[in-house]
Amino acid sequence: MRGPAERAPYLQQLAELPTLLAAAVAAAGPRIEQPYRPGGWTGRQVVHHLADTHVNLYSRFRLALTEDNPTVRPFDEAAWAELPDVATTPLAVSLGLLTSLHARWSGLLEHLNEAQWQRTFYHPRYDTTLRLDQALVQYTWHGRHHLGHIQLLAQTAA
User: Fold this and answer.
1) What is the extent of the structural domain holding 22?
2) Is residue 4 part of a domain?
3) pTM above threshold 0.90
4) What does pLDDT average to over the chain?
């Protein structure tokens, strides 16, 4: 990425994700307990997945900013989505976590200088090194992708 102007839309999308997600969850109503597609996760699993995953992604940024090309730890997202707390934890808990987390994450990112955006981490599952500006694009896409799943449930509920 070339600079602040190119990053701005991604930073905006990252910041607004919790608000958009909360609105989509509310619009989905009871459909949130159903899969967004045959064989897919339920909306509940998607919301908790976003909270679980974004905690890890935020940590990757902080590691990259404080260590030299750290190796990040992959985790089994599918297994996490099947843990018992996913079925019992109110969605408001993960929505609140995402709101707070994204406020911290956005606050961190808005203060990075160009050299910091070029810092890296290594992801062993994909055998790749990512710069933070690349990770921003990838992780913003991740949030929007799953937001789309919840929005599908909301559309079918309407």
Assistant:
1) 10-157
2) no
3) yes
4) 97
